[in-house]
Structure formats: C-alpha cells, structure tokens
Amino acid sequence: MKILAVDYGESRTGLAICDATEMLTRAITPQIEEKSMNKVAEAVVEAAKANGAEKIVVGLCKNMDGTEGSQAKKCRRIAGKIAELWGSEPVMWDERQTTISAAAILSETNTFGKKRKEILDSVSAAVILEAYLAWRKNHPGQDEP
C-alpha cells in the first residue's frame, strides 16, 4: 500500500511516500512552504492523490515526556483538515526526535546550508514513515496504534 507521511510545520511541511510494497521510502520535494493550514491540507491531499497514496500518516509532535503541547494540537488540527478533504482520518504517529534523525542523515551526506533547509522536513517525513512502516511490519493485521 502506498502511504504518504506528513511532517507539519508552521513555515514548512515535509512529505514522503513509500512504494506499494512498503519497502522503499522517498522524500518528496519541494517541501510545502505555505503558512495557511487550509492550503497546506489541500497541498497534502493533492500530493497524496498525485502519488497514488491510499493512506496518510501525520507526525504528532509530542513533548519528550509524551505529553501533548500546542504544536501537537496544531498537528491534530491539520490532520482534521486533511481528513475533511481526503475522506478518511489520517494515522497520527509520534514524531519525537525525527528532525534530529533527519539532520543526522543529512550530515552524513554532507548536506548543509540552503540545500539542507530545502529538504530537512521532507527527510523528517521519511523518518516518520519508516518508523510507521516498521510498526506495520511487526504488527501485521493489527489496528493502528
């Protein structure tokens, strides 16, 4: 199943998609650089349709102690707007430390400066998607977490 992942941010939103076998993920570029939540939701759904996605996963920005703060509420709001346009609820996935992981990946490939800023959120979305796919692989037939 093709799945689209979303790393929502107020300035930039990153997207990633997996192939139908759920084995390969890739960051989608360019990132969405819209500030309007409605326009971001529209762009996410357009990307999902254009890439043949059957499911959308939205990163849920939790605090390190597992609680949800103001950014988590924004993630839930964007997920609600996506659901209205998409016709089904996205899966919410804990995204703690994904930006740190994405930054480490980009450092390993010597990607810095403007180029790094242009793809960091999409690479973060790929990290979110890979974590979600690993969960699916280890929990076959189970409902979403």
Describe the structure.
It is globular, with a radius of gyration of 14 Å. Strands 3-2-1-4-5 form a five-stranded mixed beta sheet, with helices on both faces. It has 145 residues and is of the alpha/beta class. It has four helices and five strands, in the order E-E-E-H-E-H-E-H-H. Helix 2 (70-86) links the parallel strand 4 and strand 5. It starts with a strand and ends in a 7-residue tail after the last helix. The chain has helices at 37-50, 70-86, 98-108, 113-138, and strands spanning 3-7, 13-18, 25-32, 55-60, 91-94.
List the helices and strands and how they pair.
Layout: E1 3-7, E2 13-18, E3 25-32, H1 37-50, E4 55-60, H2 70-86, E5 91-94, H3 98-108, H4 113-138
Parallel strand pairs: 1-4, 4-5
Antiparallel strand pairs: 1-2, 2-3
Helix pairs in contact: 1-2, 3-4
What are the main properties of this structure?
single chain; about 140 residues; alpha/beta; five-stranded mixed sheet; 4 helices; 5 strands
Distance linking N and C termini: 17 Å
The percentage helix is 40-55%
Shape: globular
Sequence of secondary-structure elements: EEEHEHEHH
Amount of beta strand? 15-25%
Strand order of the largest sheet: 3-2-1-4-5
Low-confidence segments = none
Annotation field: number of helices: 4
- The helix/strand class is alpha/beta
Using DSSP, what is the number of strands?
5
Mean pLDDT: 85
Radius of gyration: 14 Å
Main sheet specs: 5 strands, mixed
